[in-house]
Write a structure and sequence with these properties.
Layout lengths: L29 H6 L1 H9 L20 E2 L2 E4 L3 E3 L1 H7 L4 H14 L1 H15 L8 H6 L2 H10 L20 H16 L9 H13 L4 H40 L8 H36 L5 H17 L1 H4 L2 H10 L5 H15 L9 H13 L6 H17 L6 H8 L7 H15 L18 H15 L6 H16 L2 H9 L11 H20 L15 H28 L4 H7 L9 H5 L3 H17 L3 H14 L7 H26 L8 H20 L7 H15 L4 H48 L1 H23 L8 H15 L9 H15 L17 H5 L8 H14 L2 H5 L6 H11 L15 H10 L2 H4 L17 H4 L14 E2 L15 E2 L10 H39 L13 E2 L20 E2 L8 H4 L9 H4 L2 H6 L3
Antiparallel strand pairs: 1-2, 2-3, 4-5, 6-7
Helix pairs in contact: 4-5, 4-8, 5-9, 8-10, 9-10, 9-11, 10-11, 10-12, 12-14, 12-15, 15-17, 17-19, 19-21, 20-21, 20-23, 21-23, 22-24, 23-24, 23-25, 24-27, 25-28, 28-30, 29-30, 30-32, 31-32, 32-33, 33-34, 33-35, 35-37, 37-43
Keywords: Cell cycle, Cell division, Chromosome, Chromosome partition, Coiled coil, Nucleus
Protein name: Cohesin subunit SA
InterPro entries: ARM-type_fold, Cohesin_Scc3/SA, HEAT_SCC3-SA, SCD, STAG
């Protein structure tokens, strides 16, 4: 076994090997390579003199697609291996083939590039030079790279977000796998390339820097996986060679080919040597990297190790599937991080899935089974789901492993509110209870009482009753739906179990079991028709696929055809059982009522209506009566031809009940006679039936209000009315009032919209077509008038939650919707609307004096309803215009009276930073910064302005801005035109200009106003920021000087942390010694001590710490 071969304590890999690369190509197959065994061995063992190494090869073209050791992309530029892998646009195999050609020409140059590839993939900006490669040890190189690591950010390629890094990890791993695969026939045995790479990765994996440790561990584990695959292929070839040798040797002497025997012996010897070398490499990686990093402090690193060891055990089980390796997975199942525990379970699933490996897992299963069972209750739902799935595989491989107690701990999870956990538990339950068939069951019918499904349905009922969670039948059905839908949809067998008499020797269902079966049947029908989990599981309804919709329609058709016939019979049999009848009466709401007509099932409909009538007359329980009411409501659908038939039956039933109620009430309220209990019971029973139907049906034609009024009035006068009668009389009166209000509301709304709605809509549409600007000004003016009327009624201090204010705000929302979705068409109108609204809000000062909000400030809350219609860049412009009316004190206010201003500012700032069309100011530092990042040096130079654009800045006063501008055409380009910076007088400013298309366009006054507001505000904000920035830093520096101990006093604690877990966090099952000698650097953004110690004395000069943008903004 590989594990038995211990790594020597003084084992180290040579930095430079003197062996010469085999002349055989790395791409030739194994047979061809062994055919040249003599040549290959001679070359492999040959040595170069010290002066010959790499001689005459540096700088030459390494191979096709490479120039000076770099990959050439499209013949235009040279890319490093890191850049090629990062971009992911080149085929990995072609990149690796190019590198192999380069390695054959000059292995030092190629290997140096590979080393720098791993360094760059770690996020290090430094590079290993050829001088460093020749004269420095790996530890010295790593120390040097650590010092040159970019400390401005803790991110590195494996952790960076964004589309360009999305596929980096997969490309990185693929490159390593392809590299080993393409080198597996010669290069990996040259005692140079693999030794150097493994030595480098082992050193990096023990680095203090997390980025180095994470990246190198991933690389080492993927390298190990690739080597395991090579070892597996070698093992297979050795077995094949051995069989060929045995077959040849067993031939008779006359037929035996001695030359072939010698070739086979030599081939087996070569394969054995290669196998030994590969095992040495794998042992080096396992002992040098895995054993230390599987218990790293970083969960991601631990997860990588466990994931890969699972791959090794599954891929090469003969070498790795033993307790020496399984123990690491078992120990790590106690990890504190869910993602690591999850990797353990997924690794084990791949092993238990293969039944041939079960015998090798027996000891591990007995040792860690209890831990796996306990993980079904893991706090991380993903871990719990995978633990249940693993137990399902264990159950599938051997039933004797799990005890009844183990199984019961999983059974109850079918009632979990978390659906993935419940579904996994449902699959476990189905495998345990339902998936076993004996030979005698093969000949059983598919449907009916004697079918196999009938027995399984009984088992489901027994489990449901034994679980003692009867109110969660819908949860049980949903848990088993994915794996046992065929069983749960066998409604024919369910009906047979309920209606048919048991066969001789068959035990009939008890009353309790029949009730449970009806509930499960109802839940299955609901699941089939609604196609979504019950309440409490899932986020709501989802969009069904075409296949799911077809299945839904087919199931609904089957349900209707089957239960249209069976439901009357079921109701007749169980008519006196309230619980059973309540569930059965819910079935018609899932029927396709058209089938009653197309299937000629009208006689069964009549039978159903008769049974419902009998149920109403027999029962007084509100649950049963309400179920009957809802059934009539479902059947009384005017879209179907059965409506008249059902409506007549409903009317007849209600006529009888109302007449009976009036007759009983008259006798009940007779003066001078005290009603007995029997009369009270009759009145109460009839009143219950009427109340239950009035909930879902409009019974206004029977004038029930008069009867209930008499009943309640008599109770008030006499005071001896039974409590239940009063309750149901009040409830019935409540329904009477609700139905009346619904009619009045519906009639009023319908009359208003019929008489005026179309006229108003058409008027607004025509107005908008004639002039969008004037239409917007009209809308804002109407809102202002309503606001003024509200102030005159409620006063200047009013509640913004009042009906009047909310009504105006709702009207503003409706006005906003009339502008449609095309923001470019309404851009100018919306901007003018905001401008007028802002001016109105600040028009009148507060009547309460200075320091209080303006009189109309609350109008900004109404105006915010239109903020969503502004383009992103226009939001910024409007926000700048708003700040013209604000004082510095206003911006600091947080009282409730200032909330309209705060909410309006927030509505303008939402999404305003990521402008899609830039209008750059000549003096804005933010604009300048954006230009530097997005433009080439040529583009950032001064350009000539287009014809027709004046150099003078244009500012509009508020009177000019009120003019009606022309509709602005949407800009065709998003580029900008820059101007030279110029000092502004208080009354001057500069205006950014849109770059025009070939056809000259003229700015409208509205656009000019918007651009001008942006320029002036940005200039003002720039000066304020510079002043505040300087004042803040000056305060901080004075504080530091007063302390007298310099800046280092806050940094007494070390900036490194222990990579290994603390003694309290160690896994309980770890029984090996651990070394806690590795430190972790998370690369904080602040300067480290080494850099701070080199600061010059003039650091406290304010001018030396201000960046260029602040210096330019602050006038010294």
């Amino acid at each position: 076994m590989i594990a038995a071969q211990e790594l020597q304590a003084d084992y180290h890999f040579p930095q430079e090997a003197d062996t010469q690369l085999s002349s055989d190509t790395d791409l030739e197959d194994l047979e061809a390579r062994n055919a040249k065994a003599g040549k290959g061995k001679a070359v492999k063992k040959g040595k170069k003199g010290p002066g010959e190494k790499g001689k005459g090869t540096a700088g030459k073209v390494g191979g096709q697609g490479r120039v000076n050791g770099h990959h050439q992309e499209n013949g235009m530029e040279n890319l490093s291996l890191f850049e090629v892998v990062r971009l992911g646009k080149s085929a990995t195999q072609s990149v690796v083939d190019d590198w192999i050609e380069s390695y054959k020409n000059d292995r030092d140059v190629a290997l140096l590039e590979l080393i720098n590839f791993f360094i760059q993939c770690s996020g290090c900006k430094g590079a290993v030079s050829s001088e460093m490669f020749r004269h420095m040890q790996n530890s010295e190189i790593i120390r040097k790279m650590t010092e040159e690591f970019d400390e401005d950010s803790g991110d590195y390629p494996l952790t960076m977000a964004g589309p360009q890094w999305k596929k980096f990890k997969s490309s990185f791993c693929e490159f390593i796998g392809v590299l080993v695969r393409q080198c597996q026939y010669s290069i990996i045995y040259d005692e140079y390339m693999m030794d150097t790479v493994i030595s480098l990765l082992t050193g990096l994996s023990d680095s203090q820097v997390r980025a180095f440790r994470h990246t190198s561990t991933l690389a080492a584990m993927k390298l190990m996986t690739a080597l395991v695959n090579v070892a597996l292929n070698l093992s297979i070839n050795m077995d094949n060679t051995q069989r060929q040798y045995e077959a040849e040797r067993n031939k008779s002497i006359g037929k035996r080919a001695n030359e072939r025997l010698e070739l086979l012996l030599q081939k087996r010897k070569d394969l054995q040597e290669n196998q030994d070398e590969i095992e040495n490499m794998m042992n080096a990686i396992f002992k040098g990297v895995f054993v230390h990093r599987y218990r790293d402090a970083i969960a991601e690193i631990r997860a990588i190790c466990i994931e890969e060891i699972g791959v090794w055990m599954k891929m090469y089980s003969d070498a790795f599937l033993n307790d020496s390796y399984l123990k690491y997975v078992g120990w790590t199942m106690h990890d504190k991080q869910g993602e690591v525990r999850l990797k353990c379970l997924t690794a084990l699933q791949g092993l238990y899935y293969n039944r041939e490996l079960n015998t090798r897992l027996e000891l591990f299963t007995s040792r860690f089974k209890d831990r796996i069972v306990s993980m079904t209750l893991d706090k991380e739902y993903d871990v719990a789901v995978q633990a249940i799935k693993l137990l399902t595989l264990v159950l599938h491989s051997s039933e004797e492993v799990l005890t009844a107690e183990d199984c019961e701990s999983v059974y109850h999870l079918v009632y979990s509110a978390h659906r993935p956990v419940a579904v996994a538990a449902g699959e476990f339950l189905y495998k345990k209870l339902f998936s076993h068939r004996g030979s005698e069951e093969d000949g059983m019918p598919r449907r009916g009482r004697q079918s196999l499904n009938a027995n399984l349905i009984k088992t489901t009922v027994f489990f449901f009753l034994e679980s003692e969670l009867h109110e969660h039948g819908a949860y049980l059905v949903d848990s088993m739906w994915d794996c046992a839908s065929d069983l749960l949809k066998d409604w024919e067998s369910m009906i047979s179990l309920l209606l048919d008499e048991p066969f001789p020797g068959e035990e009939a269902l008890t009353d309790r079991q029949e009730t449970a079966l009806i509930e499960i049947m109802l839940c299955a029908i609901r699941q089939a028709c609604e196609c979504h989990p019950p309440v409490g599981r899932g986020t709501g309804k989802r969009v069904l696929t075409a296949k799911e919709k077809k299945t839904q329609l087919d199931d609904r058709t089957r349900i209707t055809e089957m239960f249209a016939v069976a439901l009357p019979l079921l109701l007749a049999k169980y008519s006196v059982d309230a619980e059973k009848v309540t569930n059965l009466l819910q079935l018609p709401q899932y029927f396709d009522l058209e089938i009653y007509t197309t299937g000629r099932l009208e006689k069964h409909l009549d039978a159903l209506l008769r049974q419902i009538r009998e149920v109403v007359e027999k029962h007084t329980e509100m649950e049963v009566l309400e179920a009957c009411s809802m059934t009539y409501h479902a059947l009384c659908n005017e879209e179907f031809t059965i409506f008249n038939r059902v409506d007549i039956a409903r009317s007849q039933l209600l006529d009888e009940q109302v007449d009976k109620f009036n007759r009983l009430l008259e006798d009940f309220l007779q003066e001078g006679e005290e009603p007995d209990e029997d009369d009270a019971y009759q009145v109460l029973s009839t009143l219950k039936r009427i109340t239950a139907f009035h909930n879902a049906h409009d019974l206004s034609q029977w004038d029930l209000f008069t009867c209930n009024y008499k009943l309640l009035n008599a109770g008030l006068q006499n005071g001896d009315m039974p409590q239940q009668i009063v309750i149901h009389a009040l409830q019935c009166t409540h329904y009477i009032i609700l139905w009346h209000l619904a009619k009045v509301s519906e009639g009023s709304s319908k009359k208003y919209y019929n008489d005026y709605g179309d006229i108003i809509k058409e008027t607004m549409s025509k107005t908008r077509q004639i002039d969008k600007i004037q239409c917007a000004k009209t809308l804002i003016l109407s809102l202002q008038q309503l606001f003024n009327e509200m102030l005159s009624e409620l006063g200047c201090v009013f509640d913004r939650s009042s009906a009047s204010f909310c009504g105006i705000k709702e009207l503003a929302r409706r006005f906003s919707l009339t502008f449609g979705l095309d923001q470019l068409k309404t851009r100018e109108a919306i901007a003018m609307l905001h401008k007028d609204g802002i001016e109105f809000a600040f028009k009148e000062p507060s009547p309460q004096g200075e320091g209080n909000p303006p009189l109309n400030l609350a109008f900004l809350d109404i105006l915010s309803e239109f903020s969503s219609k502004l383009l992103r860049q226009d939001k910024k412009t409007v926000h700048m215009y708003l700040e013209r009316f604000m004082t510095f004190q206003m911006a600091l206010q947080r009282e409730d009276c200032w909330l309209p201003l705060i909410s309006y500012r927030n509505s303008l700032q939402a999404g305003a930073d990521d402008d899609t069309m830039s209008v750059i100011s000549g003096i804005s530092s933010r604009g300048s910064t954006r230009s530097k990042k997005s433009k080439t040096p040529a583009a950032s130079a001064k350009r000539k302005l287009p014809d027709g654009v004046s150099d003078a800045g244009v500012w509009l006063n508020r009177e000019q801005g009120a003019q009606t501008p022309v509709m602005m055409p949407s800009p065709h380009l998003t580029s900008t035109v820059l101007r030279e910076t110029k000092k502004l007088r208080p009354d001057e400013g500069y205006m950014g200009v849109y770059a025009m298309s070939n056809e000259p366009q003229q700015h409208t006054p509205m656009v000019t106003w918007m651009l001008a507001q942006r320029q002036q505000a940005e200039a003002r904000q720039q000066q304020e920021r510079a002043s505040m920035h300087y004042a803040k830093m000056r305060s901080h520096m004075q504080h530091a000087i007063r302390r007298g101990t310099g800046l280092m006093e806050d940094d007494e604690e070390p900036i490194v942390e222990d990579v290994m877990m603390s003694s309290e966090e160690r896994l309980e099952d770890l029984n090996e010694g651990m070394d806690f000698d590795t430190m972790d650097i998370d690369l904080p953004p602040s300067k480290n001590r080494r850099e701070r110690s080199e600061l010059k004395p003039d650091y406290f000069d304010p001018a030396s710490i201000m960046d260029d943008s602040v210096k330019s903004g602050y006038r010294w």
